[in-house]
Design goal:
The protein is α+β, with helices and mostly antiparallel strands and about 675 residues long. Helix content is about 40%, strand content about 25%.
């Protein structure tokens, strides 16, 4: 496209001599009865016009019309379209375009069918010869649709049978590298184009998300295509619309990356490790390899946090994770499992020898002195190993047995490696005893439901309570769920216990509502409960028996239940929502965060995990992203584990709607919470 060098001034009337020269040059066009004018694209003004054109533009004289600054109120999309015309005129020579345009002389809209032809001015610049005819009587919606097509950012293209573009709106024209680009060129990938063509042939419509090359670089577009007929020839055509979704795609990619990596160390997290484990086991079976899980726990790490502070502890974890990275020889998968625990997955044809060598490398790497917060530290670790398949053929079994071996290493004095074997079965027997006590606990009604308030950040008013189960153990006293829920999951008691908690919570909601406190009561659903085929039947029965309003009950599920976007999960969530129940994602952001399922599943509330709330400002980037997504999708964000005023200030500053935590109130049994409600009325 020519540069704007020599642009004509638009702040003065052309001289009489200039007008005379132009009139003489275009004298033959003066005899035409239809409006004709020459538009100076670079100067953004009319260069010359015949008498009918003066009438169309409501101009008193040619001098007055030529002196108007047409670029003053010109929209960006119109300016872009004119630049496209100029470029095409320069590249293609004598070519023409036909379009419907609406001009606004004196602010009055005038719709015209205009034929636009490239025309070179005496100084060599490319201008545009415009030949117009009145549109006639056209419905207002037609005129508005033409204007919308011109100004929209959505890229609209009509392709003919051979894939050549019959029409492009300005946005589409600006997004192609070449005016001659065909539909198959646009798609690029032959397989993707074949899929699109097949969908058009069979269904008449098709949708595709793809990366395309544009003058702005590579962009992500969502492309929708529909079979139609060309309005001029009547022949088959394809109407394609494209929307630039690059910002959404990049946000999703960032969220997906952060969801698969530990925020502090950058190592793969649990979700990432779980995915890699499944693939590694397939490869091991196919190649007859052995495999092992190595669980690494730093010795006396708690002392670092207690004496030097959590910031020093984080600094130490980052430094040690870098050292662990350097101990790998290419095939190992290293992940941060949580806290001061790391996991290594190793596959090998000679597993014991490679494990012993890896243990030696790790011990040497960790033992080197390290300065943290001005203190020189020497770190050791206790390691436990579980071998595949003899110690387990699932990640759960291997993790459990590697954990047992690691605890055995702790008991043996730390700074050593222990392989899981039969001598550790006593731990499993202890678990069996726990399971026996759990079964008796259900029969003896030793469980009790506590309730923790959930508060509005802005008003500090009570919004909901979360039901949390406790075990009143006859010997151990009050036992928290982290100590018995995993066992309930493993032995199949979680469904019975979970349904009991839901029934208690539903009856309590009704009781509180009768006393004037119509609170939302939130209840956790475990993955095993959610997978039960009787879930809907059981929940419906509980709600009916309690006589509770389903709109005042909320079910909390974890992100892991949505991993993979199983259709069954989606169907169950929709059916639960149809009952009137609201749905919350608990501990959000701990390992599975994914934008796609937030758009697909009927989720109403995001409960941001306490690890983000209690972290430092420098490590809250994912929490910031979660808050932004919840606001964008109009979901209620709830901060978990708020324990200090500083944390609450951070929560309030991010626009998070609600919070719960020890700063406001701890979980309380029914009687205590009821008294609390009376005192806080």
């Amino acid at each position: 496209m020519p540069t704007p060098a020599g642009r004509l001034p638009v702040d003065r009337q052309p001289t009489a001599a200039e007008l005379a020269a132009r009139t003489a040059r275009y004298a033959a066009l003066e005899w035409l009865s239809r409006p004709v004018w020459v538009f100076d694209i670079e100067g953004q003004c009319v260069h010359w016009a015949n008498t009918p054109a003066l009438e169309v533009w409501s101009a008193t004289t040619l001098a007055e019309l030529c002196g108007r600054d047409m670029g003053h109120d010109m929209s960006e999309s119109v300016a872009q379209r004119l630049a496209q015309y100029q470029c095409d005129f320069v590249l293609r020579g004598k070519t023409s375009f036909n379009e419907q345009w609406t001009i606004y002389p004196g602010g009055v809209p005038v719709s015209l069918n205009v034929r636009l032809t490239g025309h070179q001015l005496p100084d060599g610049r490319m201008s545009m010869l415009c030949e117009a005819e009145p549109v006639g009587v056209v419905p207002p919606e037609s005129l508005r649709s033409v204007e919308a097509l011109l100004h929209t950012a959505v890229m609209i293209t009509l392709y003919g049978q051979n894939g050549e573009a019959l029409y492009r709106n300005p946005a589409a024209r600006a997004a192609v590298l070449s005016p001659g680009e065909r539909l198959q060129d646009r798609i690029g990938n032959p397989a993707a184009f074949a899929t699109l063509s097949r969908s058009l042939e069979q269904q008449g419509v098709a949708t595709l998300t793809l990366a395309v090359r544009t003058p702005r670089g590579d962009r992500w577009h969502e492309l929708s295509a529909r079979r139609c007929n060309d309005a001029i020839t009547g022949q088959d055509a394809v109407l394609v619309s494209e929307a630039d979704i690059s910002a959404i795609k990049h946000t999703e990619e960032r969220a997906n990356f952060q969801s698969l990596h530990d925020v502090l160390t950058g190592l793969p997290n649990r979700a990432h490790f779980t995915q890699r484990f499944a693939r590694a086991m397939e490869e091991a079976r196919a190649q007859s390899l052995e495999a092992a899980l190595l669980l690494i726990d730093l010795d006396n790490f708690k002392d670092v946090n207690d004496t030097l502070g959590h910031a020093a502890g984080d600094e130490l974890l980052v430094a040690l994770s870098q050292r662990l990275r350097h101990t790998r020889h290419g095939t190992e998968v290293l992940a941060r499992w949580g806290g001061d625990e790391f996991l290594v997955l190793l596959t090998s044809p000679r597993i014991r020898a490679d494990l012993d060598a890896l243990h030696e490398r790790i011990s040497v790497a960790l033992a080197a002195p390290l300065s943290v917060a001005g203190t020189l530290l020497r770190v050791t670790s206790s390691m436990g190993v579980a071998l595949y398949p003899q110690d387990g053929d699932t990640i759960e079994l291997l993790l459990r047995n590697a954990g047992l071996a690691m605890h055995a290493a702790k008991k043996r004095g730390r700074n050593t490696l222990v392989y899981f074997d039969g001598s550790l079965a006593e731990v499993a027997r202890s678990r069996t005893e726990l399971e026996k006590e759990l079964r008796q606990a259900l029969e003896r009604k030793e469980f009790e439901v506590y309730y923790q308030p959930r508060v509005d950040v802005a008003t500090n008013s009570l919004r909901a309570v979360e039901a949390l189960v406790r075990w009143n153990h006859p010997r151990l006293g009050l036992v928290l769920p982290a100590q018995f829920i995993p066992a309930c999951e493993g032995m199949g008691l979680i469904g019975q216990l979970g349904l009991w908690v839901l029934a208690q919570a539903a009856h309590q909601q009704v009781a509180w509502a009768a006393q004037g406190w119509d609170l939302v009561v939130s209840v956790n659903l475990s993955p095993r409960q959610f997978a039960s085929p009787d879930l809907l039947h059981d929940i419906t029965g509980v709600l009916r028996q309690a006589g509770v309003n389903p709109a005042r009950m909320e079910l909390e599920i974890t992100e892991s239940m949505l991993l993979g976007e199983d259709q069954h999960v989606l169907d169950v969530m929709r059916e639960l929502s149809a009952l009137g129940l609201s749905m919350a994602l608990d501990d959000f952001g701990t390992g599975y965060s994914n934008l796609a399922y937030l758009q697909r599943f009927p989720v109403h509330t995001l409960k941001i995990d306490k690890t983000f709330i209690q972290d430092t400002d420098a490590n809250r980037s994912l929490a910031e992203l979660i808050v932004s997504l919840s606001l964008l999708m109009r979901l209620t964000a709830v901060a978990e584990g708020v324990e200090t005023q500083e944390q609450l200030d951070w929560v309030a500053g991010r626009g998070i709607a609600q919070y719960q935590g020890y700063l406001y109130a701890r979980p309380m049994p029914v009687r205590a919470l009821t008294e609390w409600l009376h005192s806080h009325a």
